[in-house]
Every structure is written in C-alpha cells, then in structure tokens.
Amino acid sequence: MRKLLSMGVAAAFTVAALALTGSPAQAAAPAGEYVALGDSYASGVGADPYDASSGVCLRSPKSYPRRLAARETGLTLKDVTCSGATIAEVRRTQLSALSANTRLVTLTVGGNDAQFTTVIRGCLTENDAYCRDLNTYVSYYARHQLVDELAALHTEVKTRAPKARIVVLGYPRLVEMTGSCGALDLNTARRTWLNGTADALAEGTSAAAQRADVEYMDTRFLFAWGAHGACGKDPWINGVNPSKVTETFHPNATGYDKAYEYAWQHLFD
After folding, report:
1. For 138-155, what is each residue's pLDDT tens digit?
2. Could you say which of 139, 206, 228, 250 is catalytic?
3. CATH of the domain at 111
C-alpha cells in the first residue's frame, strides 16, 4: 500500500492542481504503450549510474519515466529521452517513437532552448551584474517565445499520438535560500535570480500546455515542500560538484524517487 501524503504535501498539491490542464487529475494510468520524451530532467541526469546503452543521452534507471513504468505495471515504456535535448531535437529524433498505439506520453523540455545551463554557469563564475542580466533575458524568453515553441511541439505530439494522455512536467526551483551549495557558492541575490528564472520557465511551460490543451504538472511544489532544493539541509537536487558538472542542479536519486512519486499519486491514484 502506498504511503499517504502528509497534510503539508497534500496542501501543496491543492495549489499544484491549479496548474493542471486537459484530462482530470487522478485518472487511472492508461494501460499500453508509454513514450517518454524530453531532456536531462526526463532522462534522469543526476542519478547515476546510467545505462551504458544510452550513451550521451544518460538515461538513468532511476529517472521519473522508469519509476512510473515500474509503478504502473500495465505500461510498456519506450524511453527516448536524451540529456541536452532541445525542442528541435525532440521533434527530430524522439517524436518518431509516437504512434496511434501510444496511450501515455510524458515530456520535459525547454530548459536547453532557454540556455539555462549557460545561466547557471554564468551565475557560478561571473559577477552579479552578469548573472542578473542573463536571468532577465532568459526569463523574458521563457514567458514569451518559448510558449509558442512548446505549444507547437505539444500540438505535434497530440497529432502523432491521438489516443494518448499527454503530461508535461515542468522544472523545479533549484536552490534553497540558505545553506551551502558546494564548491562554488551563490549569494542571496543570485539564488533569487535563478529561482526567478525557474519560475519563468514553469510559467511559460504551463502557458504552452494550456494553449495546446495538454496536462501540466508544476514540479516546483514537489521539491519546495520541506525545502528539498539544492543547498538545503535535505536536498533532492544536486548542488555544485566540479567532478560531476553535468549533474549540477539536477534531481538526485531521492528527488526522482520521492518528488515524482508525489506527482504520480496525484495524477494516477
């Protein structure tokens, strides 16, 4: 029997449910073919070791698609997620996995189009003004142009998989406002700007999902309740590790397990 949500988490989900569009929440997971699309947050970067056969795509057995497929035994997973994927790359290399037989699609993408990795690198290595200006630019892009680009992608997913339930998962806020982030730390202003850009990505992704009439899960709530961002006391997101740069500010194994389990409870139970 699955664990019940705490009252605090349940309260967070009451708010998160407002961000869901499309099919009603808490419907049963459809049985049949499940296609997982997206970038490093979908492939499971941050929770090594990775499947050797996935190469540079860095697909982890602990990723949220793998955990969902294991949880819902009626699903047959086709995992085509890939670290570093952009919207164009999802369209070019991943959408061919969809068909009229597909019954469930999950997708996380857009962060690489927004060059969020560049923003993180700039905020870790450059001065405050540089970090602020990068975040301002990316936040504007996320709330405007990204919405059009994502909505077009979602519409194409619907066309290729007309019988599928489509769930778009956004990105979490990255950092707690207190605590050490590791080898390269962040001051309060930089943490505020980075979280503001995460909010912009979430808002843009939500707007695109609503426009295309697909479901959206706001993952900020999954990590925020209990202060599970990077740099906090109980992080579900990796902090700064120079020996594992790719994993910086991606969910760790606990994050993919606990945070996304809350998502599946809300969507499928």
Report:
1. 999 999 999 999 999 999
2. 250
3. 3.40.50.1110
